[in-house]
Design a protein that fits this description.
The chain is of the alpha/beta class. It contains 34 helices and 17 strands.
Length: 729
């Protein structure tokens, strides 16, 4: 058989050796045993059933949830044989003639692999036909879909056991790229193959680097900077909503990055086109919902970015696993904010209670991973039931926490308190209740068990809930406690935990990250010692220059640049007219009219003070409103009444004036004399014009006070637009 396996491998696939556990798995299948395979993405799962199918008599049925993936695999198998009938797909996309052809090839014994979606396998006519044929075995790919604890649960998968029995009593092969112990048990039980030979490859991908960053308001800029530092490299950016996918793809495009969106809302033709562009390297980045990547086998994806944190660690592992499949560099960057978790919890509120429980439990694991300060690889592998040595293990320093270790402190006494509460509350609580007990906070569950009357209730009052949750996670990973699989999330003491309680030794706790909103710092900070915010010294110089330019041009300073524009210059240090035109409230017209002196001043200042410019952070906006602005400019040119322009776009008058103000402040001309002439006569216009000419600033409230009821806010705002148009643009 040894010879047979190796010669078949060479004959069909051209390989000389098997990878990892492949050989063991194939032997189990060839010997007609039920077989369960857990092998990370990129480990060579599909070969485990393809080779035995080609070697054995009859047709192997492969159940797969993904039509795109089936098609890829059928094409690949057809490539190893002269006869196209060697592999077929049987799903809803086929017409009657095509179905007849598939059946004919199976009858003739030509077809070795038949790929079916679970929905098709349920059809009585197919079951009836397959019952009369020689079936070698049934392989179930993406088997985690069977388990409601899995991250892609499909109810139609639950029924597979009965369908397989109805067809033939053949061995069953289950394959998945990710499964916790809970999911494994669930799969085997549901399929009735608890006797299966189990094979589990290591989940460690040593070439992947893991990093979690706080998600601030500047997340788009952060992503653009990250991508621009890796020109020409392929990456995937995952977002939870289609809307966000479109937004991010657009922002990347306007900032000169070749990016395409991918989500289920796009028509099939566009999806295929975008997928092919990515594979053929006509674009560098795909921005996607999780609908993407299942059927993608691109070996050189160099980074995977999570704009939104996923709903489970399994999804996260699956998605990051698409990076670096060629064993080259793979960077996994996730942006995390607790607000996103709260959003996901809100979505769950409409689900049945049992499903909500599962969802919450899975989300808490994600929170733990994001907030932990310990080795991220150790945390991740522990979740999949695998030990990892964070000192000597392969890839031990490949994460942000190991590269920048957090402070540690002695927490022996606190570990004792925590374990005492677990033990004395009779090991019947989940993490949240244990923390409440330590803090001395009652709830209905604790009261019903009379825990609030116990002497240990509140023994951890002096520390925050956040602290206790962090410590709980850390002692979970060193195996002092475990989460009970059957009652998902209930905390039990382990032998090691009992030992520690009897004889406590030193326990160095890593101080956790706290991702709260107060910690959100803007990414655009200058690099001088102040460390953040705008550069006050530069602002003073810019204001002096503005005064000089204004005097020379005979206009008030605010008509040159407004204060928010100067603040933005002192953040971004623009040194070309193009960069200046992207500063808040400037635009090309203004940059050309007043900009020369300003960029010279900034350029000299940057050089003298040795400032590192955040030049890659001048992010162009997507111009979502540019269509509206264009519409306003065209219609005022045609002298259409302002009320009609507002009405046709569903705007209130003050919203329209706001849009016109932003057009005018960015230096674009906008002539609304025709509208003002209907409101104010020549003398009135002159009076307001002279006021603005001499005013310290152009604040409307101050103008209203000055004229004391002679003019209303709308008239003054429209006159301010006319004034700025004449003197500043």
């Amino acid at each position: 058989m040894q010879m047979d396996l190796h010669s078949s491998l060479k004959k069909f696939f051209g390989f000389n050796t098997f990878k990892g556990l492949q050989e063991e798995v194939i032997k189990s299948i060839v010997a007609n045993n039920n077989t369960f395979v857990i092998m990370p993405t990129g480990g060579g799962k599909s070969l485990c059933y393809q080779l035995p199918a080609l070697m054995k008599e009859g047709t192997a049925i492969v159940v797969s949830p993904l039509i795109a993936l089936m098609k890829n695999q059928v094409d690949a198998i057809r490539g190893v044989s002269e006869n196209n009938g060697i592999a077929h797909v049987l799903n809803s996309s086929l017409n009657k003639t095509e179905v007849a052809k598939v059946k004919d090839d199976i009858k003739k014994g030509v077809t070795k692999l038949l790929y079916v979606a679970p929905e098709s396998l349920i059809k009585e006519e197919y079951v009836k036909f397959l019952r009369t044929q020689k079936i070698s075995f049934v392989a179930i790919d993406e088997a985690h879909c069977i388990s409601e604890w899995g991250h892609d649960f499909r109810p139609e998968y639950r029924n597979l056991k009965h369908i397989i029995k109805a067809i033939d009593n053949v061995p069953v092969i289950c394959l998945t790229a990710t499964a916790t112990e809970k999911v494994q048990e669930d799969i085997l039980k549901t399929l009735g193959i608890t006797d299966a030979n189990r094979f589990k490859a290591s989940f460690n991908r040593p070439n992947l680097f893991y990093e979690v960053r706080p998600k601030t308001k500047e997340v788009e800029k952060d992503i653009i900077r990250f991508v621009k530092q890796r020109p020409g490299k392929s990456g995937i950016i995952y977002c939870l909503s289609r809307k966000k996918v479109e937004e991010i793809a657009q922002i990347l495009q306007v900032n000169g990055i070749k990016a395409v969106p991918y989500h289920a809302g796009l028509d099939a033709k566009t999806r295929v086109k975008h997928q092919d562009m990515f594979l053929m390297e006509d674009c560098d980045v795909v921005v996607a919902t999780i609908a993407f990547g299942m059927g993608i086998d691109k070996p050189d994806v160099r980074y995977v970015i999570h704009h939104d944190i996923p709903k489970s660690l399994e999804s996260y592992y699956q998605e990051t696993g698409r990076a670096g499949r060629d064993d080259g560099e793979g960077y996994c960057l996730a942006f995390y904010s607790y607000k996103d978790i709260e959003k996901l919890e809100k979505f769950m509120a409409s689900k049945p209670v049992a499903e909500q429980e599962i969802g919450h439990a899975l989300l808490q694991e994600v929170v733990g991973y994001a907030e932990t300060s310990m080795n991220r690889r150790k945390y991740l592998l522990h979740y999949f039931g695998e030990e990892f040595d964070e000192v000597n293990g392969e890839g031990a320093d490949m994460d942000d926490n190991s590269r920048n270790p957090k402070k540690k402190h002695e927490a022996k006494e606190d570990v004792v308190k925590l374990l005492t509460v677990v033990k004395k509350s009779l090991q019947k609580y989940k993490a949240k209740e244990i923390v409440r007990t330590l803090k001395g906070k009652e709830n209905a569950l604790l009261t019903s068990h009379k825990t609030h009357l116990q002497p240990f209730f509140g023994i951890g009052k002096d520390k925050s809930s956040h602290y206790w949750m962090a410590l709980l996670r850390q002692i979970l990973v060193v195996n002092f406690i475990r989460k009970e699989i059957e009652q998902y999330g209930v905390i039990k003491l382990t032998k090691e935990g009992e030992k520690f309680l009897k004889n406590p030794t030193s326990f160095m706790m890593t101080e956790d990250h706290i991702y709260d909103d107060e910690n959100e710092t803007s990414i655009i900070t200058n690099t001088k010692s102040s460390g953040a915010g705008t550069d006050d010294k530069l602002i003073k110089l810019l204001k002096d220059l503005r005064k000089k330019v204004a005097t020379k041009q005979g206009v008030p300073p605010f008509a040159v640049f407004q204060d928010p524009s100067l603040d933005d210059m002192a953040l971004k240090y623009p040194i070309t007219l193009d960069e200046l035109s992207k500063v808040h409230g400037v635009g090309e017209g203004k940059a050309r009219k007043f900009g020369k002196d300003f960029i010279k001043l900034i350029s000299d200042y940057v050089e003298e003070n040795d400032i590192l410019r955040p030049d890659d952070l001048i992010v162009k906006s997507t111009g979502v409103n540019s269509g509206l602005k264009l519409f306003i400019i065209q219609n005022t040119d045609k002298k259409i009444p302002l009320e009609d322009i507002a009405k046709s776009k569903g705007l209130e008058m003050d919203e329209l004036i706001g849009e016109m103000e932003s057009i005018i402040y960015s230096g674009t001309k906008l002539n609304i004399d025709y509208a003002i002439d209907e409101l104010l006569d020549e003398d009135q216009q002159e009076e307001i014009h002279d006021y603005f000419m001499d005013a310290e600033n152009d604040k409307i409230q101050e103008a209203l006070d000055e004229f004391d009821g002679d003019y209303d806010e709308e008239e003054l705002r429209l006159m301010r637009i006319k004034f700025t148009n004449e003197v500043a643009n």
